[in-house]
Each structure stands twice: as structure tokens, then as C-alpha cells.
Amino acid sequence: MDEKIKLFEEMKKYGFEQVVHIYDETTGLKGIIVIHDTTLGPALGGSRIWNYESEEEALIDCLRLARGMTYKSSAAGLNLGGGKAVIIGDATKVKSEAFFRAFGRYVQSLNGRYITAEDVNTTTEDMAYINMETDHVVGLAGKSGNPSPITALGTFYALKGALEYKHKSDDVSKYSYAVQGVGETGANLVRYLMEEGAKDVRVCDINKKNLDKIKAAFPQVKVVDPDSIYAQDVDVFVPCALGGVLNDKTIPTIKAGIICGTSNNVLLEEDRHGDMIKDRGILYAPDFVVNAGGVINVYHEIHGYNRDNVIADIKLIRNRVIEIFKIADKQNINTQKAAKVFAENRIKTIKEVRSNFVNR
Ligand code: NAD
Asked: 199: which of 4, 23, 35, 208 lies 20 to 30 Å off by Cα?
């Protein structure tokens, strides 16, 4: 995206519906809410507080993230569109009840077209303040709860889908794994792997406490150096730490035949690095399909939260990644691109299904 963006051209090019700039005089709240596409339902996306260097940078980030949510929710089979809010400021200084209530009033003014949630630098407590002014907020305390175990479970099913597709067997015990990062999602994923009999699980982390915890729970797990994680001679590389780790430097060193982990934006440059992975014959399970557990979890808050229904939806991720791998093979495109085709097809089809008038 060009640094000096022309907003209406950008909206036209990528199909953004609405961009709202908000400012509250009393609290100094400054933010942007972007609604990308509401074909499938209300635009859901978290509210992020970040000390952006410029308003331009904040706008570009919000546009990118909102569009990403459209793809994520569509590919997850949810009746949700994509949206996002960014609030400009230092999260350690700006937060207060009034600040979030002012924000909540702007969310309410969109009358349900946008539903907010937690994101970077916002918490369930902040959502409770927002909820004093609007019902269009999810991720509240006492409802869907911590998303990390659910995200890890979705990733586990995606991993099984990838194993099935590549090796015609999703028996987890037959394969070896290198897990980068054993924080909230990585540790849960290791647990699911161990529970299904995985015998060779190698992990790394830069946080010793997290490594100690995983060793205490599963002494048979092998700890390796963070720099050596890419070149581990294993069947599956499982990135659960940072974004951008699949890049020019790391991709040539990867020995695993499958990449599937919880990390967001794991490809440094989507198109180029997606192609590089494809050319190396590695099966990459697209991040936004794999890690949709969090959004699936909060989605269920909107319709009355039921854990069994959530788990049933999470299990669908397995066959969804297989469907995406098939699209990639058929069209000879990388799997990240195929995931976007899959998401776009669903939006296009539902738009067409709704083209005739029905009185409701
Ligand atoms: P986390 O902070 O709990 O865990 C990340 C772990 O990675 C930490 O233990 C950290 O020390 C480790 N780490 C950081 N840099 C590392 C490095 N260079 N090498 C090895 N380890 C390193 O975060 P999380 O919630 O588990 O999220 C992990 C990824 O999954 C992120 O990209 C996040 O955006 C994505 N994600 C998380 C969720 C969720 O529900 N938590 C949902 C969707 C996507």
C-alpha cells in the first residue's frame, strides 16, 4: 500500500464500505473505525490501541486489519464481515472508564454495523466499559473466555488436515514436530499433540519460564535453540510466536514438509513468500484459516454462547484447510492465495443468493 494513500481510491480498489474518524474532546480519544465488507454480516474486529507515528500509519494499519478480518471470518464460515478499530495513543496513559465509554458511544452510533472486541493493548475490563454504552461488543468477561486454548485446538485440527492431505493419514503419533514459541497458544497445542500420542516434539522459546512450564508438564519434550528451530529435521514446523518468520532467510532452511501454527501474518510478504514455500514443495496451512479459533469463539457470544457448538465449528477447520489445499493444487497457486479465493468465493456466492427480494 502506498504511504501517501488516496482514501477513496483505496476504498474503491479493495471494496471498503466505511471509514469513520472519531474524536472525543473530553477524553482526547482519537481513533479510526473501518468497516470493510458486511456482505456476510456485521463487521467484527478488535480495537487496538497503538502509539502510531502518524495518522496515515494508523489509517493504513486499520484498513489492512479490517480487510484481513473479512477474509478470516468468511473462510471460517461465519456470518460476519470484516472491521477493525485503531485508537491512537500510549496505552499506558490514555485508558480510563470515560475513554472507553466515549469509544463505546461511537461503536453504538454505527448501530450494529461494527462489533468490537479485545485486541492489542485492550482487555476484558476495557470491553466492560465499552459495554456500558453499547451491546455491540464481544469478548466480555464470563462469556467466551480465554481464546488461546480454542485457537490452539483449531490449529490442531488444521494440522491434522494437513497431515491427511500430505501423507494420507492424520495419525498424530506417526510424525515429528518443531514448535516455535510455547506461550498461550503454543503450550496448548503441544498439549493436544501429546494427548494424541506425539512422540517427537521439539520446542523453543526465548522465555525460560514458559520452557520450564512445558518441561514440567511434558518431560519428554525436547528443548532446542531458537535459531535452530527452522532447520529441525521434522515433519511439521509449528510457528506459534511471531509474525513475519517465513521470509527469504528462513524458508530455504526449513526441512519440514508441512507448516502449520497459530502465528498471525506469518509470511513476511504474502505473495512472494507464499510462492517460495510452494516452490519448495512445502505444504503451508494458511494462517488466517488455521488460527480462526478466536473469532469463532467470540462469534458464538453473539448468538448465545455454547461450548459444544464452538467445538463443533472448530473441528470444521480440518476439512476447510483440505478444501483450500485442493483449490491451490487445481489452480496451481500458493495456499495463502487459495485461502483468499475460498473466502472471496463464499462472499460472492452469498451476495448472489441474496439478490432476489424476500420479505422477512
Ligand atoms: P504468547 O505471547 O502467549 O506466546 C508467544 C511465545 O513466543 C512466548 O512464549 C514468547 O516468549 C515466544 N517467542 C517470542 N519470540 C520468540 C522467538 N524469536 N523464538 C521463540 N519463541 C519466541 O502469544 P500467543 O497468544 O500464543 O500468540 C502467538 C501467535 O498466535 C501470535 O502471532 C498471535 O498473534 C497468534 N494468535 C493468537 C491467538 C490467541 O488466541 N492467543 C489467536 C490468533 C492468533
From this structure: 208
